[in-house]
Specification:
alpha+beta, 434 Repressor (Amino-terminal Domain), Nuclear Transport Factor 2, Chain: A, 3 domains, four-stranded antiparallel beta sheet, about 50% helix, rod-shaped
Amino acid sequence: MNQEKIGRFISILRKEKNMTQEELAEKIGVTDRAISKWENGRGMPDLSLMQPLCEELGITINELLSGEKIKRENYQQKLEENIVNTIDYARKKIDSVNKKFKVLSLVTLFIVILITLFCINVSRMRNNKPVFFSTWGYKYALAIDLHEEEIEIAITDYLTNKMDSEPKHYNDEKGFVSFRTYLIEENNKKLHNIYAWVLMEKYYKEEDIKKDSTFSIPYKFVVEFIDDEYVVTDSRTPRDGSYYEDDMKNIFPKSVRDDMKDVYEDGTIERLKLDINRQKELYFSR
């Protein structure tokens, strides 16, 4: 099928009918750009437009596809040729569409793979892991989150104030606190339950630094975010004696209780004591 020949044929017939491209386009319901495209051999009318186009130009579809007027004795031969050519043209168009679809699919798949790998790399950067491939200069800065440190400061202040408010046995008496956090439950952004093992010790200084008392016990703290700061609003500890086991079950989750069973064997108490010793030496060396 010769598109250029067909286009010239359409142009000649249109001019014989004294029609402009705009007038022909209006009669068959297309734009003048479509007519221009056909006449320049850059496209073919859709099947649905061939019949109205041929009626306006006074030809048959067989003649349109041949790109010329057909004599009666050659009509059947041209018809068969046009059928073959039309089938071949349709096959080529389908092949062209399939190739374009395959190329588009491959490009889309490639882009999706790149975006996926990029997102994976950003995720790995967030977790301080090496990236798989270059991120084209993109650098991810981890958001600074100090809320756990601020909660620990609030607990330390709460316990220190609690010790300072108790009656003093010596003039230069000072309380120190250290604790290990086992679990932080965030009920909402402003309310937290903190389960910890707390070691509190009081010291005083005469000629040497001497210990006055030691307090080692599990704690549950309720910490709230009030006026842009964390504040301990409640705390609970298990009672001594026969109440201890029941209170532990009522106050602490099972996973925390299981971890706390080893507090004197897993080095927790030793680390807390070292921390308090450091605080003590700094305080009394002033």
